[in-house]
Amino acid sequence: MEQEFHRIRRLPPYVFAEVDAMKARARAAGDDIIDFGMGNPDSPTPRHIVEKLIETVQNPRTHRYSTSRGIPGLRRAVAGYYERRFGVAVDPETEAVVTLGSKEGLANLSSAITSPGDVILVPNPSYPIHQFGFIIAGAAARHIPVRPDANFFAGLERAVQHSVPKPTALVLNYPNNPTAEVADVDFFAEVVDFCRYHGIYILSDLAYSEIYFEGNPPPSLLQVPGARDIAVEFTSMSKTYSMPGWRIGFAVGNRRLIEALARNKSYLDYGAFTPIQVASVAALNGPQDCVDEIRALYRERRDVLIDGLEAAGWSVPKPVATMFAWAPIPPAFRHLGSLEFSKILLREAKVAVSPGVGFGEHGDDHVRLALVENLHRIRQAVRSIKAYMGRYDKVVHTSESKRLAVR
Questions:
Q1: Which of residues 255, 285, 315 is at a domain's end?
Q2: For residues 32-45, b (16+ Cβ closer than 10 Å) or e, as one string?
Q3: What is the pTM of this model?
Q4: What confidence tens digit (pLDDT) does each residue in 99-124 have?
């Protein structure tokens, strides 16, 4: 029986899948692809965290079901992190939930608080789950600018004025994926004032709070007085401690939102494997020099990549935070759009990037480069891109001819 499912119908084809398929074919053909596409940290998890996992897993009692909300020790460690890092007191019993990474937490809270037809506000471009978690739950997404400036608030005002029904929630993500934009406490305070006045919940994604290079450390939305009345914040162990495959994160903030997330999760999972949670306690409560080392690694890679691209004739802003560079497509290629440009880079320079359109239509004049290759590979990629830039007239002509022929 052929049948289209309503929720799946609302999900567009995953743009990244097309580039991923090209990567797979190229590698199968023996090509050496330098991959800046997926934000998948390549550094090993710090040794003391791995050792705690190994120690804990030796105890057969930890092999049983865990608890969906997260073990008490990890929730206390999360509260301790917020107190040390942001000066924010969190009740580990009522204001914290352990999640299977921030992505799962965002998706499950979207499902818990959304009814079909609700309107949510999300920046464009944005990390896909920020809008599609709500879309899967039946909501409609209204887009606002991502840069934290006057245009953001003008867009926010317009969205509220012209949305029926009134928006339920606003999603924020600073430091931002994919654009690497950062925001300060004053910006957060203005957003909180606006959303409290209009009765709009805020979901803040703080996954890159510890990956910063210049200026002050990125703040938490919960540092704003009154934010806890309407906001919940998600973060993750993936980037801070190079633990992406461990799938562990947490949500803190408004008790009503935390309870909604916890109740939804209780029907869907038994929590992360207990040894992973215990190892996460060791990460949060243990020595933090590993975080400094991870941050320094990304800073060095950023400098080599951005300086190299500049020398190759591709001017890319140097990000002050995150593990990404948000690169404007060079003017000669901009008419092609980000997907076609990504394909050309893959085919001609053997370099994979993420097309900006995969993060929303307003990202189509950019591509995202993840700092997940070592310095040798980054320099190799820069040389390949520079060589390609030197013959781009011929390449673009050939690509355009093929594209028009398909039409």
A1: 285
A2: ebbbbbbbebeeeb
A3: 0.91
A4: 998 889 999 999 999 999 999 999 99
